[in-house]
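Notes to self, JmjC domain-containing protein:
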Amino acid sequence: MLFNDPIGYAGELSSQFGPQPIGLHVKDSHMDRLFSYFCRQYNKRQKIFDEVGAVKIVPSAKWSKSNKGDTSTLADVDVPVLSQRSIVTTTGGIFVLPKQLSARPLKAVARKSLPRPRDFPSNMQDVPDYMWKSLATGKMQAEYATSFEVDPTLCQKLDLMSFRGILGALKRHEDVRTIFGFFGTYGSVFCFHTEDFEALSVNILLDGAPKYWIVIAAEHRDKFNQLTAKLYSQENTMCEKPTSHLNFLVSPAQLQAQDIPYTEFIQYPGEIMVIMAGAHHAGFNLGVNYSENVYCGHPSMLEQLKKTNNLCCDCKEEDGKTRKHLPLNRSELDKLEEAAR
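result:
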């Protein structure tokens, strides 16, 4: 099977320089009930969740994809997608990944993906340090995880879980409710970023190898943006949100040197990562895997949206287009608030 991953990991990562990771262990496997439970916990513990920047939802061991009879796997389907292969340049624990776009089918990605090295650690506590050192020494040539917009018919054919009705508040916006699929291979990465509209981000790892996350809570983002702006002032002299333009990773050692707290997570198949509003996040895939991601909103976010309205910068891209995303006017926000009740 394409996603067969024989290595079993035990234990969670403990934070050395920031809040400890939070996991919500839920004795249920129904998607709607999982998110209802998360919403109740979010209402009670929003401050704690925001201090960490993310929460991992761990369903019961009985969780599985829906059973609809005979279905295909990703190994049987060629999906034309944009893959972002990259050359890594490093500066003292900062890894910059310039984009190069090319079309590749998922099947070919899986077939040609590099296996994990023989010295890959069996203890999950040692994995983050191993991956960061592999990047720094050139042992691992990082590339982007392959991403694509999920087609509902593809979901049905592959028997993949799709998000339905989650949290409600922002799902009616076309730009927010779009589901994205991510196909990872060993060493593929997703660079530091925050979500548009300051939305929450929900990522479910459907199958395959685990995924490593590093999260910086929103309360530290000013310091983080100052660090990146200082390091790359030649590329971005005016913008207050350099992470909107740069594709990069910052190692834990560099974050510690700059006194920026962070939290690390390991996500296993069937588990759900919820990234809090405004939190920077990045990570690695530890082998071939498939996950889906969607923005979502919570009613309490609407007040923040009303205050800030547009949270993306207005800088121009190379093609002359403005990065500014769909603005939300007062009438639209009122409609969202109504829908969230």
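- The longest helix spans residues 31-52.
- The first strand starts at residue 23 and ends at 25.
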